[in-house]
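hey m, so remember when u said the tokens were messed up on ur end? i reran from scratch. heres the input so u can diff it against urs
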Amino acid sequence: MTRILMTADTVGGVWTYALELARTLLAQGDHTIILATMGAPLSAEQRAASHLPNLTLCESAYKLEWMDAPWDDVACAGDWLLALEAEYRPDVIHLNGYAHGALPWQAPTLIVGHSCVLSWWEAVKGDAAPLSWDRYRDAARAGLRAVDQVIAPSETMRVALERHYGSLRATAVIPNGRDPQRFAPAAKAPFILTMGRLWDEAKNAALLAGIAPRLAWPVYIAGEAQHPSGGLFRNVSSVHPLGRLDETSVADWLARASIYALPARYEPFGLSVLEAALSGCALVLGDIPSLRENWDGMALFVPPDDSDALHAMLCQLINDPAERTRLGLLARERALTFSAERMADGYRAIYRQLITHHTIKDQPVCVS
């Protein structure tokens, strides 16, 4: 039985990823997981979803390294995580953040680079992150260089990590996955849907909201509008805001949506795109390398800052039901290759490799 100490933040897609991975690993009966959460208190829905056999939930509300003035919290969280290692004696440390990679762990370590401020800033702002992010940069670099293995959900993100933080010890790509039984097409209705953290400029929801009044179909937007540090997405007068939805409601809306639009400027993998594709939506996506990597030939792409192109493409799809159907079938075909089982198999292989190498490294050397 392999014991995994895994961190997860409760604010965004990392929670969805961590729970899906945990659920799939635990279903095989050969893992136990200690899930250490940070970022914000768990919601009642999150807490209920984490009630899984062989999963021990350890909650905190320590700030994440990308939040405002986080460093005292990051240090306290580090002490807490080391105490959890001493208590549970895991075989592998699986980190979904960067700074804690540099802690003096006893077990072998991996970091999964889901996104980062430096690559976000480059993609969204078109420039290097300002000097105010130097402490983040240094902490992330130290963590990434200290661990035994770095995983990225796409080749685009793996390359970005090495470009921003330098050469890393060992890297691999394991695409994120979702259980296809949780998302399936239903009778499609005449509306457009998008989802995500609406306050995040990377999702580019404002571009879609800006053209919504000129579309023949309504646009529905699901997601958290309030930034953890206080900012608020306000471009809602021309769309139908759904707020934050639970997983059942997300699956229901996606099942009925004809078009899923995400003109993202930055999206290292795109779990919401995967869920929409499993649900048979026609995809209209930002023309960025990571989304091309996963969905080229299975979606339509628009420049992320071209509102006229987005408007024209959505109008084209609204008026072409055969093309919507074709794209929905193609998207689902590709999405089925991004399964939770495939993701879990990738992590099982990495865990075995880390444990084996760590065991060999720690064996005493016999001198005759």
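this time it looks ok to me. The radius of gyration is 21 Å. if urs says something different then somethings off w ur setup not the seq
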